[in-house]
Design a protein that fits this description.
With 107 residues, this protein is mainly alpha-helical. The chain is built from 2 helices and no strands.
């Protein structure tokens, strides 16, 4: 039995978990922590969050859907790989059976 590659899982989770987390971190550190219009910062009462805080807030909102999407992606990868392995095993069994039948005819 061949060792399984984890590469598809790493790619899927990297795109769905790592890239957004790094993007939120970089944007939070690079965007200003004040409103350029001079408007008060915060939530409610006519105030708006600073751009760096808004990125964090959007990151919090996106965390659960991205987590669930990552889990679904891993499940889909596992199902596709299992089906592919079953098909390959079926072909190998059919090839071995044909080889045995050919051997019986020659003997």
């Amino acid at each position: 039995m061949e060792p399984r590659s984890v590469r598809p899982y790493i790619v899927a989770l990297g795109l769905l978990w790592i890239v957004p987390a790094v993007l939120v971190l970089v944007l939070h550190l690079t965007l200003p922590d004040y409103n350029a219009s001079g408007q008060c910062t915060g939530l409610g009462f006519g105030c708006a969050p600073a751009p760096s805080d808004a990125v964090l807030f959007l990151g919090y909102l996106a965390a659960l859907p991205l987590f669930l999407l990552g889990m679904v992606a891993c499940l889909v990868i596992a199902v596709v790989r299992a089906r592919r392995d079953r098909r390959a095993a079926g072909r190998e069994d059919a090839g071995a059976a044909e080889g045995r039948e050919d051997g019986d005819l020659l003997g």
